[in-house]
Amino acid sequence: MTFIEATLWTIGSVVLLISLWQVVAKVLPAWKEDPGLSALCQIVAYTAILLLLWTFYFPSTKASLIFATRPGSWVFYPIAALLGVAILFPTSAIYEAALARWPDKAQGSEILAHFRDLPRWRQATAGFSLVVTTPLIEEALFRGALFGTLRRHHHTALVVVSTASLFALVHVQPQLFLPIAMVGAALAYMRVASGSMWPGVVMHMAFNGLSFYAQVTSTGATDDPTPRWQVLGGAMVSATLLALTQYLRTKKGNPEPELHKQDDEEEEP
């Protein structure tokens, strides 16, 4: 897979997701503003893309090699959870700065207002989707299929940067690109260091979980920036955790088998 192909697959996933959501929203107009509906459409669209990627790029390769589904060392899991929490504060500050420079009326309070109008069970479904299913399906696509397939042919650093950029691209909103790319790079590096996709899933769940909690407990005010001490503290903790991850990677060596161009032919039956 080339980087251009990866970009086209990513764009295709966005187009498929939006098209599917538009169709379902017409059939079920009362659910149009339900975040759970968007999550369901994302699961269907990304699963379809994953199946296509599997068919075209690694039909004979063990899925565990591409998706890095082995658990890896337990020590990366608490680091990932803490990193998911800590990195939210500096990335939120970057997002707030981008919004201050380039305002977007469609964000924030309107989405939150629709969420609060939903019945309790639909709020719970939306929360579960954001905190559990969204991280799972996004990690399977970006740190799983795309990362694993690109790494068969390209240097790891390039793959980290490219998958982080593609991950930011699917979030559509321009103001989100830099902060989401930073999160995506940390998630990709967590896979590189641990040799497993699962610590990244834990980090992603922690990040989304805290973000979701902040939104549902918000008073609706959008002008209050993230306190500076939280931004500095989150940045320092994030840097420390990433440095610890690098130390563990160096100490333990490369935990993930290299994905060679000819691994289909070399793979044992």
List the helices and strands and how they pair.
Layout: H1 3-27, H2 35-57, H3 63-67, H4 76-86, H5 88-101, H6 109-116, H7 120-151, H8 156-169, H9 177-194, H10 198-216, H11 228-252, H12 263-266
Helix pairs in contact: 1-2, 1-8, 2-7, 4-10, 4-11, 5-9, 5-11, 7-8, 7-10, 8-9, 9-10, 9-11
Uncertain stretches:
260-269
Count of distinct structural domains? 1
Cα end-to-end separation = 24 Å
The helix content is: over 70%
Strand content: under 5%
User: What would the average pLDDT be, to the nearest integer?
Assistant: 87
**Total number of helical segments?**
12
N-to-C SSE string, H for helix and E for strand: HHHHHHHHHHHH
Largest sheet: none
Radius of gyration: 19 Å
Structural class: mainly alpha
Overall number of strands = 0
Shape annotation: globular
In words, what does this structure look like?
- The protein has about 270 residues and is mainly alpha-helical.
- The protein has one domain.
- Helices cover about 75% and strands about 0% of the residues.
- The chain contains 12 helices and no strands.
- It has helices spanning about 5-25, 35-55, 65, 75-85, 90-100, 110-115, 120-150, 155-170, 175-195, 200-215, 230-250, 265.
- Helix 2 runs parallel beside helix 7 (about 120-150) and helix 9 (about 175-195) runs parallel beside helix 11 (about 230-250).
- The longest helix has about 30 residues, at about 120-150.
- The radius of gyration is 19 Å and the shape is globular.
